[in-house]
Design a protein that fits this description.
Number of domains: 3
Strand content: 35-45%
Number of strands: 23
CATH class of the largest domain: Alpha Beta
Largest sheet: 8 strands, antiparallel
Number of helices: 7
CATH architecture of the largest domain: Roll
Length: about 425
């Protein structure tokens, strides 16, 4: 037998009363105001249902609205309201959306997931005119500071594999490689027995993993050599940079490779190499990296675009000019990066194209070349000669050392706690 309290009976009576008194059926173009109300009045919401899904392939915002029975006039009106806030052409297949539709068929709310930072929200503000408030809303995120340890061994022969074993993913590996790329070649330098610790930020949205923040600190023992990196934000310009334990910059004039994570080298710099297409011995004045078509290619240093276009056997090629007499070349691309045209200014790490198989090429790869004062040089060897960036300015050293020590303490404390409760391998 069910037992109802006085309060529950009162609530039930109120719901029944308001449902019977306030339910109205509205067409797409209402012909009258709700009885006894103005559009700005507060009204009781009718019951509603929520429809969620992901945008199908080759869909538009208009077709999405039509598929859910919004009607062409209402759909067009809503799109025009959305347009100043969000370009409808930016809708992407696979992104999530939701509709809140009242039992009388009236759309009350529409939301569309744009990216990990924002979603589009359209909320009905007037029954009579069917007008909507539209805005981009930032997701509420929680950022946690975590630490993991790992090692390079027979089962985990790469940094990515070692991180996968600790429950993290390839993006964290890419971030670590970017921080340490001036000191460690993750394609060639790793050895069995190498070990690492890393303190990093991990972001969650509504309880779900939403990406990584910054690497805060990391220690990597590579072939018995300890390499350390600590994040420090320079007070004078709020720039995030990484330094070793003594405050020396880990950033070099040139990145070690034109990828965010170093792929395998398939052919090295040589003055006499058997050409795989022409079948003759000729100089190969660059380094070939094997990578799938479409892999992003980044500028190894800031500079200006000399040329970006088709270049005979080199296929689609980008040529950049840097300081101190250096130029870099990126051959056989399948596509060029946005805004990569002759004369454009490029920053270090900016995407300038994608790996391809154009020109005289037997498969998808990047031929990366470097020239100094008019002469081609071996990029792998030249990188080691380049000086690091500026150290922590002397006036900030005491602050840096304090932040370094705190980060190191938090990293080891977090790993020690995880080991005690059995969360690490």
């Amino acid at each position: 037998m069910y037992r109802f309290s006085f309060e529950s009976c009162a609530v039930l009576a109120f719901i029944l009363l308001t449902t019977s008194c306030n339910r109205h059926v509205w067409s797409e173009e209402p012909t009258q105001e709700p009885p006894g109300t103005e559009s700005s009045d507060i009204f009781l919401e009718p019951d509603s249902r929520v429809i969620t899904g992901v945008v199908p392939r080759r869909s538009t915002l208009a077709s999405l609205f039509t598929d859910h029975g919004l009607g062409s006039r209402l759909g067009a009106r809503l799109i025009e309201t959305i347009r100043p806030v969000f370009d409808p052409r930016r809708i992407r297949a696979g992104n999530q959306y939701s509709f809140v539709i009242a039992d009388d068929g009236l759309l009350r709310r529409f939301e569309y997931h744009i990216d990990n930072d924002h979603f589009l929200q359209a909320v009905l503000k007037s029954h009579s005119s069917l007008s909507f408030d539209v805005e981009l809303v930032a997701y509420t995120k929680e950022t946690l500071e975590l630490a993991v340890k790992g090692s390079i061994n027979a089962q985990n022969s790469s940094l990515v594999a070692a991180l996968n074993g600790s429950g993290e993913n390839v993006i964290l590996g890419i971030m670590m490689a970017e921080v340490l790329s001036g000191e460690i070649d993750f394609n060639n330098d790793l050895r069995q027995g190498d070990q690492f610790n890393v303190l990093f930020e991990k972001q969650f949205r509504e309880g779900e993993f939403a990406g990584y923040g910054d690497v805060i600190a990391t220690e990597f023992v590579n072939d018995d050599r300890l390499v350390q990196a600590f994040r420090y934000v320079l007070p004078k310009d709020n720039e995030v940079l990484y330094y070793d334990e003594q405050g020396r910059s880990l950033k070099r004039l040139f990145l070690r490779s034109p990828f965010r994570f170093e792929p395998r080298v398939t052919s090295r710099f040589s003055y006499r190499r058997l050409h795989p297409v022409l079948g003759v011995h000729r100089p190969h004045l660059g380094v070939d990296y094997g990578a799938p078509t479409g892999t992003p290619v980044i500028a190894v240093a800031s500079g200006r675009v000399v040329s970006a276009g088709r270049s005979g056997g080199s296929g689609n090629m980008v040529r950049l000019r840097h300081t101190n007499g250096y130029e870099t070349y990126y051959l056989h691309l399948s596509a060029f990066g946005k805004g990569v045209v002759a004369g454009a200014r490029i920053t270090q790490g900016q995407e300038i194209g994608k790996v391809g198989n154009t020109g005289l090429s037997t498969g998808p790869h990047l031929d990366y070349r470097m020239r100094k004062n008019g002469t081609f040089v071996n990029p792998l060897l030249e990188h080691r000669k380049l000086p690091p960036g500026d150290p922590v300015p002397e006036e900030y050293l005491a602050d840096f050392f304090a932040i370094r020590d705190q980060a190191r303490l938090r990293m080891h404390s977090s790993i020690s706690t995880s080991e005690k409760i059995g969360l690490t391998n």
